[in-house]
Design goal:
Distance between the termini: 42 Å
Number of strands: 43
Structural class: mainly beta
Number of helices: 1
Strand order of the largest sheet: 41-37-36-40-42-43
Helix content: under 10%
Length: about 500
C-alpha cells in the first residue's frame, strides 16, 4: 500500500508501507491464549491464532484439594502452517503452564452438599454410570440429567463441553440435552462435560468419552488405497545436538517415539562425527476410535538426516537458509532483507535481481508473484562452502500500484497558472503561456499526471493544448481551451473561452 502526501504542488512524497513476510514459526507466532485448569482439574484448551493443534500431552488433572495452588503444564503439538521458513520441521511443541487453584470449601463436594455430582466415575469410562463411547455418529443426543445429580439445596445451572480432537464433530447444549453431530466419516474426538452449580462455584466433571463417526477404513502409516486412511508423517527433523522435531500427522494420537532398539526416547545422542548420519525413528500411535483397527498401536518409521555438531559440515544449501523482510514495493523496488543460517544471522545479501536480471520491476495493476534471486556470501566456517557466494530464489508478492499515473497514456500541455474562474484568464488584458508538459488523456474524468504523480490542480482552471504554445491563452485574439483540475488530478470540466470584446472575460462557451 502506498500513501501520497501533497508536499507542494505539483510534487508529491510517496511513502510505502512494508509488506509482511513469513519468517520462522514459533510459539509466539502460534499465540496460544486462554489456557486454563479449573480447581476440579478440567483443562480448557487454548485458542490458537496460527497453526493447528494436533495433539496434547494431558486433557485433565486431578482435583486440587491440597490447600494451595499447583503448577500444571500441558505441551501442545502445533502443526506448522505452509509458508514459514521452518515449515519442513513439521511440528512445534508449545508448552502452556498455569497454576491450578485449590478448591475452596464452596467448590469442594466433601464440604458442600450443594455441589452437583457425576453419577459415574470421572476416571473410569467403563463404569456403568459413566457416559459411554459413541460410535457411528451422524447426530445423537445425550440426556445429561441421567449422568449428573444436583446438590441438596441447589440446581445445575449449566453445562460446558471440552472437545479434545476433531473440529468436524460439533456439540451444542440446550437445557440438559447435549447434541453431538458430524457430516464427516472416519473422524473422532474425545469429549468431557462439566456441570455448573446454580448457587456457587462448585462443578462436577464427567469421564472423558470418545465419539466417532461411521468408518469402514483401517488406519495405516501411508496408503494409496481409497479404503484406508493414513497418518502421513510429514516433515520433522533431528538437530545436530539430538533434539527431535516431530513430523506433522493428520490422524491418531502419538503415544511415544522409539529408537532402532525399540527404546522409548525423547531425544537422540548428538552427532559429533565429521559428517551427517541417518537416524530412523519409530513413531507409535494409538489408532483412534472408529477405524477397523481402533485401540491398536500403529508403528510408523521415518528416517532423518542428522547434521554434525562439528566442522566441517555439508555445503550450505538454500533449504538451510531463512529469509527475512524481503519485500517489493508497489513501485517495483526490491527492498533487501537479511538471510540467516546455522552459525550466522542477519546477513546482508551482496546482490538481488529480478527474473530478467534487472534491479526493479514495472508497476502492476494487481498483486503479482515475483521470484527474486538473492546472492550472499557464506560467512561461517561450519559450512564446507564457507567464504563462497551462493544464489537462492525467493517468491515475493508485488502489491498493485495505487497511482493512476503509472498507467496513464497520452501527453498534452497545460498553463503554468491556474485561476478560480475561466474569465480570470482575461483580466488586465494578460496573456499566458501553455508550456507545462503533463501526461494523460484530456477528457473529463481522466487524471492529469505530472512527473509520474497526479497533478494537484486545487480545483482551478488551466489552459491546455496538445502542444506547447508561447502566449497561448488570455487576450490572444482567438479562442483557447480550459480545463478544471481538482486536488487529486481529476479533470472536472472542459470548456473554451475567448477574451475579445470585453473588459473582464467572456462567459464560458
Amino acid at each position: 500500500m502506498s500513501t501520497k502526501i501533497n508536499a507542494r504542488s505539483p510534487f508529491f512524497i510517496e511513502a510505502t508501507e512494508p509488506t509482511a513476510t513469513l519468517g520462522i514459526f514459533d510459539c509466539t507466532t502460534a499465540n496460544l491464549l486462554n489456557f486454563a485448569v479449573s480447581s476440579a482439574g478440567d483443562v480448557t484448551e487454548p485458542s490458537i491464532l496460527k497453526g493447528t493443534i494436533i495433539d496434547r500431552t494431558v486433557t485433565s488433572f486431578p482435583a486440587n484439594t491440597s490447600g494451595s495452588a499447583i503448577s500444571r503444564t500441558v505441551t501442545y503439538t502445533i502443526q506448522i502452517p505452509a509458508g514459514y521458513s521452518n515449515t519442513s520441521a513439521g511440528t512445534l511443541p508449545c508448552v502452556q503452564t498455569i497454576n491450578q487453584p485449590t478448591q475452596t470449601p464452596a467448590e469442594n463436594p466433601s464440604s458442600n452438599d450443594n455441589c452437583p455430582v457425576f453419577n459415574g466415575d470421572a476416571n473410569d469410562p467403563s463404569n456403568a454410570n459413566s457416559i459411554p463411547a459413541i460410535t457411528n455418529l451422524s447426530t445423537t443426543t445425550v440426556n445429561l440429567a441421567t449422568y449428573f445429580t444436583a446438590g441438596t439445596d441447589a440446581t445445575i445451572n449449566s453445562y460446558s463441553v471440552q472437545n479434545y480432537g476433531a473440529a468436524a464433530i460439533s456439540t451444542s447444549i440446550s437445557g440438559n440435552t447435549l447434541t453431538i453431530s458430524t457430516g464427516s466419516a472416519c473422524v473422532s474426538t474425545t469429549l468431557r462435560v462439566t456441570a455448573f452449580n446454580s448457587s456457587d462455584a462448585c462443578t462436577a466433571l464427567s469421564n472423558e468419552f470418545s465419539v466417532s463417526a461411521a468408518c469402514t477404513k483401517a488406519l495405516t502409516c501411508t496408503t494409496t488405497d481409497a479404503n484406508n486412511d493414513a497418518v502421513n508423517l510429514t516433515g520433522g527433523n533431528i538437530s545436530a545436538t539430538g533434539v527431535i522435531s516431530n513430523p506433522s500427522y493428520s490422524i491418531a494420537n502419538l503415544l511415544r517415539i522409539e529408537d532402532s532398539g525399540n527404546n522409548t526416547i525423547t531425544s537422540v545422542p548428538a552427532n559429533n562425527g565429521a559428517s551427517p548420519i541417518n537416524v530412523t525413528l519409530t513413531f507409535v500411535f494409538k489408532v483412534t476410535t472408529g477405524y477397523t483397527n481402533s485401540a491398536s498401536e500403529l508403528e510408523c518409521s521415518k528416517t532423518f538426516s542428522q547434521l554434525s555438531t562439528v566442522a566441517p559440515r555439508v555445503n550450505l544449501e538454500c533449504s538451510d537458509v531463512t529469509f527475512d523482510n524481503f519485500t517489493i514495493t508497489s513501485q517495483g523496488n526490491v527492498i533487501a532483507g537479511t538471510v540467516s543460517y546455522l552459525g550466522s544471522t542477519n546477513i546482508t545479501p551482496n546482490n538481488i535481481t529480478t527474473e530478467s536480471g534487472d534491479y526493479k520491476y514495472d508497476v502492476v495493476a494487481s498483486s503479482t508473484s515475483r521470484t527474486i534471486s538473492i546472492t550472499f556470501r557464506v560467512l561461517n566456517t561450519n559450512w564446507l562452502n564457507n567464504n563462497t557466494s551462493i544464489t537462492c530464489t525467493l517468491s515475493v508478492t508485488q502489491p498493485p500500484s495505487e497511482n493512476a499515473c503509472d498507467f496513464a497514456s497520452g501527453n498534452f500541455v497545460i498553463s503554468e497558472e491556474g485561476f478560480s474562474a475561466v474569465g480570470s484568464f482575461c483580466n488586465n488584458n494578460a496573456v499566458h503561456s501553455i508550456l507545462v508538459p503533463v501526461n494523460g488523456t484530456s477528457s473529463v474524468g481522466n487524471t492529469v499526471c505530472y512527473l509520474g504523480n497526479p497533478f494537484n490542480g486545487g480545483g482551478l482552471y488551466y489552459a491546455f493544448s496538445s502542444f506547447e504554445i508561447q502566449n497561448g491563452a488570455g487576450n490572444i485574439g482567438a479562442s483557447f481551451s480550459v480545463m478544471q483540475i481538482d486536488s487529486s488530478g481529476t479533470i472536472l470540466r472542459i470548456t473554451t473561452t475567448n477574451c475579445q470584446g470585453d473588459d473582464g472575460g467572456d462567459s464560458q462557451i
